[in-house]
Amino acid sequence: MSATLLAALMLSAPIAQTQAAASASGDVSLTVYSSADPAGFDPRQFLEQQQNGWGMAMGVPGFGLVRETRAVDMPMGLGQLAFTDVAAFIDPTTVSFNDITEPGTSVLDQRFEFDLVSADKLLQRYVDRPVSLLVDMDGGPLMIGGTLLAARGGSLVVARDGGIELVPQGKASITLGELPGGLRTRPTLLWNVNSPKAGRHQIRMGYETSGLTWRADYNVTLNERNDKADLSAWVTLLNVCGRGFDKARLKLVAGDVQRIEPRGGNAMPRAMMAKAAMADAEAGFQEKSFAEFHLYTLPRPIDVPQNASQQISLFPSVSGIPVEKLLVYEGAAMAWGGGGPIDGREFGQVGNTKVDIYVRLTNDKASNMGMPLPAGKMRVFQRDEADGSLEFIGEDVIKHTPRDEKVLIRLGSAFDVVGERTQVDFKVDRARRQMTESFKIEIRNRKDQPVTVLVREPLYRWNNWQITASSQAWDKVNAGTIQFTVDAAANSVSTVTYSVQYSW
Fold it and tell me: How many whole angstroms separate alpha carbon 221 and alpha carbon 390?
């Protein structure tokens, strides 16, 4: 469709305003919930949908609660209010209404009109109605008047005196009359109201809308010795709800808030995540406990543009956090369910050779932290002392983490440290209801520095077990796991052996 056609359509006469107008006053409060998976959620896919004109918010993992106060011209008795500038993906069943000026005002019924004006819709509404066309011809512009019979396939069919004219739509600038009924330039809530008092009223309204969500992102920078770290945190806020919010008071709720989904969709409770903060009013959010969840309030108004994502500081950067770097070997990590029956020799004999790298910190005040951390993705960097640049060394996802809890971040697998787990003996005595199994575990350290590796062994054959022999001390992690601490010298091979007896 040509630019001249679009321009002509947008200059059409506006709809007659027979109902009281409701204008936004700028007093807006916005609470955003999220069920986004921090590992896979990417706001860019939804922005691309909007840019491509899809206009869908159904797949956005979250929603928002909008509350605002507006000034309206209230009619006496029965009348109608048209509330424009509402979100395109509003849930009309969640709308609340309160006349602050006159509490006696009541809403009799409401409807939500979202059939928004477009060039194609206007042309379809003008079929069998008179139109004027200015057509770009080789010899110059030509004015054509008549009745529009059809507008499809890139052509306009116009009936005029003397016959039917077929006009290429791309060459025509069309002048129409008034905006047809039923079309709106913006999503609009229409309320039929009954008020005992006319005049300028203050109306407080609220509603729920799709198309709003957020995610938390953390950046961790390790020092050269891997014993201290700096932490910064951001929230990425996504708004594709069909409306922007100016100078909004922004809140988020952290915790698993249950929400019932329609049948046929995802009927599972959705995890409503939210942000965390420190007490710096200029840099981040202020946090408090709220109804068994955590509520975070940005202490300053913020603009939330339509069809955009933006980053907001979650809390001020924290420096000098004590951290601990761990190497963990789980040789049976890939063994579950393999190799036949549970009392067979081959059960669980598919092993793992990779030694995983972790960074662990404690979310407490002694570590310069101590704020509830919402679920999110933690990216870890380390500075290259040769040129001072930050290099990415791994990332992981954390769950909602209260204060005083530990945070464990998996970075990947070590390059120069490998493990090997070998079954060296297995016996089963079904008459005595006993199984005995022995393993040898090697930690091969090819680095020029010594390392400490935690070797975790799951005792997966039965819940009644005892260690009958061991080459070194071990710790019981839980009812089905033991752990060895192996100090491996530089360029060495360290060996752990143990035997376990199961009974049932």
Answer: 8
Beta carbons of 295 and 251 less than 8 angstroms apart: yes
- Ranges of residues in the chain with a pLDDT under 50 are 1-25, 264-282
Residue 245's beta-bridge partner residues?
A: 304
| Angle, vertex CA 201, rays to CA 199 and CA 204, nearest 5 | 160
25: Cβ–Cβ under 8 A, 6 or more apart, which residues? 68, 69, 70, 71, 202
Q: What is the per-residue pLDDT for 130?
A: 84
Question: What are the tokens at 95?
Answer: 């709308």
Instruction: Kindly state the DSSP code that residue 119 receives in the 8-state scheme.
Output: H
Angstrom distance (rounded) from CA 416 to CA 423: 24
- What gap in Å lies between CA 334 and CA 354, rounded to an integer? 11
For residue 364 the two structure tokens come to 């407490």
Q: For tokens 């409060």, name the residue.
A: 29
Q: Where in the chain is the domain with CATH 2.30.30?
A: 127-175
Give the three-class secondary structure for 234: strand
Q: What are phi and psi of 439, to 5 degrees?
A: -135, 150
**Domain 324-358+408-503 belongs in CATH node 3.40.309.10:** no
- pLDDT, residue 1, reads 40
Residue 11's pLDDT is: 35
Query: Virtual CA dihedral for 262, 264, 269, 273, nearest 10 degrees?
Result: -80
- Tokens of residue 29, six digits: 């409060």
Amino acid at 426: F
User: Tell me, what's the pLDDT at 26?
Assistant: 54
CA pair distance 43, 59, nearest whole angstrom: 11
Is CATH 2.40.10 correct for 127-175?
no
- From-to residues of CATH 2.60.40.290 in the chain: 324-358+408-503
pTM of full prediction above 0.70: yes
339-369: b (≥16 Cβ within 10 Å) or e? eeeebebebbbebbebbbbbbebbbeeebeb
Q: Give which of 196, 189, 205, 173 is closest to 100, Cα–Cα.
A: 205
What local confidence, expressed as pLDDT, does residue 280 receive?
37
Q: What is the dihedral of CA 363, 364, 369, 372, to 10 degrees?
A: 60
